[in-house]
Give the backbone structure.
Amino acid sequence: MMSIADHETERTVRELADLTGPSREALADLHARIEREAEAEGILDVAYTTVATPVGTLLLASTAAGLVRVAYEREGFDRVLETLAARLSPRILQAPGRLDEAARQLDEYFAGTRTAFELRLDHSLSRGFRRLVQEHLAEIAYGRTESYRDVARIVGNPGAVRAVGTACATNPLPVVVPCHRVLRSDGSLGGYIGGLEAKTALLQLEHAA
């Protein structure tokens, strides 16, 4: 027969279990179910996840049209998500499944086994001249570089060197859309949204000249 003390101990254990709440596994299962249902019902406008890479943790975000954002941690992931909510849709969910292919191709790129990305891209965060420049960036081959002046000339506006710099600095899809392959005319790095260490690392990875 249990004593009063034993009953009190049992009740305390039950109360602590209640306070502890669902297990990590149960929460993961719940999140996965919410992700599946949101996809099935067509109410997941922006899915995102984070991946570890040699240049730091990257946030990846995708709409139904394709990969829409790659962000470095130094940009502030919360701020990036707030911007996506304001510019695209507030229906955002951490949903790695939609981004499995992008994550896989990034792993291959950083492993040196992929020289070109084969992903659907959503360019809806860019407009006008910036979008024109960013679409050209994807044409700069792996291991090659162009100057800001080169890019301005190629896109048909030779005098817009500063505007090309701005387009590179505001590229919403760094790494995948390789703004790191654009240098100053004297061969120096120029700026980079991920920082100069990351730009150097990417160029070294590609053995860019």
Notes: Strands lie at 46-51, 58-63, 66-72, 92-94, 146-147, 182-183. Residues 68 and 122 are 5 Å apart (CA to CA). DSSP finds eight helices and six strands in the chain.
